[in-house]
Design a protein that fits this description.
The chain contains eleven helices and two strands. By secondary structure, the protein is an all-alpha fold. InterPro entries: YidC/ALB3/OXA1/COX18, YidC/Oxa/ALB_C, YidC/YidC1/YidC2_Firmicutes, YidC_ALB_C.
Amino acid sequence: MKRKIKLTLMLAVGLMVLTACGTGPITSETTDFWDKFVYFFAQAIRFLGVGGNIGIGIILFTLIIRTLLLPLSKVQMASSRKMQDLQPKVKELRERYPGRDNQLLLTEEIQRLYKEEGVNQMASMLPLFVQMPILIALFQALSRVDFLKTGQFLWLNLSQTDPYYILPILAAVFTFLSSWLMSKAQLEKSGMMTAMTYLMTAMIFWFALRSSSGVALYWTVSNAYQVFQTLLFNNPFKIIAEREAERLAEKQRMVRIRKAQKKAKKRK
């Protein structure tokens, strides 16, 4: 889990760095392969803009992209759920192999456990790797293609920052909710996980605050979709309720076993 958190942070930082690499304008005359890919995104957004409204195009395009990535996200959530359920066994292994001298053996035992239970750690990271070039292309489309940098949407001038800070705040709130929901059902919570939740929230707020409203709109819609997706397919409250029901069922089973054993002794 710590490895996943660190990798997520690295991808987020990498995204911010890479999105700043391309600054020149992109037009239909562009010949570079990557820039053509970015321009395709821009054209798709313009096509989806009902009545020429780029803001609506950004929202619809974001929803379409996130929906297309949903199968990968479901694989990620299923893998994460399995890893969560295995945390008690992982904890037992850590207690069995304490100290730095046993780290190699501990790692081997954890890997063996995951293999026996059919858990693929990379499956939980695959969507992050797939989404990264898409996020970069979308960001550059909004910041480097001229026809996406103009227009109004609600109170927003899409080429400028949000004057009322509403989108940066919403983007940060949805980022926090998404991270909080994903960690809610964790059997073991660490200070690092809590710190990462707040750090990611602060990073998204800062990023949305300094970006054009078009980019901030994307972050807001994308993170809101993530919250909805988590509640629908990996609801932590449902997971907690299922675990509690299993715990009570096991407790009742043990009570019945003890009663049966007492009756058996009396008959003797």
